[in-house]
Amino acid sequence: MTIDNFTRSRRLRRTSNIRKMVSETKVSVEDLIYPIFVTQGTGIKKEITNMPGQFHYSVDQLPEAIEEVVSLGIPAVMVFGIPGTKDLRGSGADDPEGIVQQGVRQIKKDFPDLTVITDVCLCQYTTDGHCGLVIEGEVVNDPSLERLASIAVSHAEAGADMVAPSEMMDGRVLWIRRGLDEAGYQNVAIMSYSVKYASSFYAPFRGAVNSAPSFGDRKTYQMDPGNRLEAKRQVAIDLEEGADILMVKPALSYLDIIRDVKGTAPLAAYHVSGEYAMFKLAAKNGLIDETAGMVEILTSIKRAGADLILTYFAKEMAEHLLKDSIGHSNNSTGDKLKITDNRINSTDHIKNCREFG
C-alpha cells in the first residue's frame, strides 16, 4: 500500500450534511430586511417594470403583502414611499398623512412585532429629485438638516422602530438623533447609510420611486467609488454622531469596504436594485441558475462581514432557507412537514426550521 503525501480536503466536502456541518458562513432569515414600496391610491399592486418580482403597494394592500413577509420569518422591512405630489421643500416627506407615515401605521397596526425601518431622504418628494434642499442650483447641506430631522421624527410618530437616513448630508445623524431625543423618541434607532457610493446600480430604484435628479448628479454628496479610506472616516463620524447600525451601499461591488468597516458596530449592506435586476435578467435568459446564484451572492455579502442584508431577494431567500431546513430536518429526524406554496403552514414549524438555517 502506498501512502500518498497530500492532504485530502475533499473528505469534508463528501456529503451535503458534512458540508453544512463545516460551513463557515451561513445566511439566516434573521439577517434579511425586505424593502417595500408604498404608493398613493387604493387597490394597487403593480409590478415594477425594471425590478421583476417587486411591486408598488397601496396602503390597503399592505396587510396581504406583509403577511407573506411575516409568514416567512423575515424580521424587518424597509419602507419607501412614492408620494402623489412633489414640491421644492419635499413637504410630503414629513407630512403626518404622508405615504410613508400611512404605511407605517398600517403595518404596525397589523403586525406590531415586525421591525419597521423607514428611509429618510428628500429625493422622492422634491421636484428636483435631489436628496437635500436645492437653493440657487446647489444642493445645500445645513438647511437640509432640519428637514431631515423633521422627517425622522414624523416617521417615529407614525410608529417606526428605526429610521435610516440615506441622503449623505454632513451632520445628519447628529441632527436626527437630537431631533428624535427632543421629541421623546430616545428608543428609536438610527441605521445610517454611512458609506453610500455614487453608483450606477441605483438606476432601477430611481425609476421605481421617480427620484432621478432633474439636473446634475449626486456626486457632490455621495462617495467616490474609488475611495476606500474615506469609508472608514464616514463610519467613525456616524458612530460619534449617534448611529446605532451602519450600512454600506451598494453591497456586491463593495465587499472589500464591508470587510474594512466590519467590527465597529452592527453592519448592514444593501444589495441594491441594479445588482438585483441584472441578475434577474441573466437568470430569465437562462444564463445562470437563479437560486444557486442568489445564495452565492448573499453568502458573499455575509462572508464579507455584513450582519444584516437589505435585499429584494429577501422573500425568495427565506423560502429557500425554509425548504432547505425542512429537508435537513426530514433527513435528520424523519419529521414530515407539510409545505404549501413553498411556505410552512405552522408557526411552530417555522420556528423549528429557522433553528436549522
CATH names the topology as TIM Barrel
Instruction: Going across the biggest sheet, name each strand in turn.
Output: 1-4-5-8-9-10-11-12
Using only C-alpha atoms, the radius of gyration works out to: 21 Å
Question: What are the low-pLDDT stretches, counting only 5+ consecutive residues below 50?
Answer: 333-357
- The CATH architecture would be Alpha-Beta Barrel
Which bin fits the share of residues in helices?
25-40%
| Overall body shape | globular
End-to-end span in angstroms?
43 Å
Biggest sheet overview = 8 strands, parallel, barrel
| CATH classification, class level | Alpha Beta
Q: Got a strand count?
A: 14
Number of helices: 12
The chain-level structural class is alpha/beta
**How many domains would you count in the coordinates?**
1
CATH superfamily: Aldolase class I
Mean pLDDT over the residues: 92
Encode the helix/strand succession as letters: HEEEHEHEEEHEHEHHEHEHHEHEEH
Q: Layout of helices and strands, plus pairs?
A:
Blueprint (H helix, E strand, L loop, with lengths): L15 H7 L9 E8 L5 E3 L7 E4 L3 H10 L4 E7 L16 H12 L4 E6 L13 E2 L2 E2 L2 H17 L3 E4 L6 H11 L6 E8 L6 H7 L19 H13 L3 E5 L5 H7 L5 E5 L1 H12 L5 H15 L3 E4 L2 H20 L5 E2 L2 E2 L2 H10 L1
Parallel strand pairs: 1-3, 1-4, 1-12, 4-5, 5-8, 8-9, 9-10, 10-11, 11-12
Antiparallel strand pairs: 2-3, 6-7, 13-14
Helix pairs in contact: 3-4, 4-5, 11-12
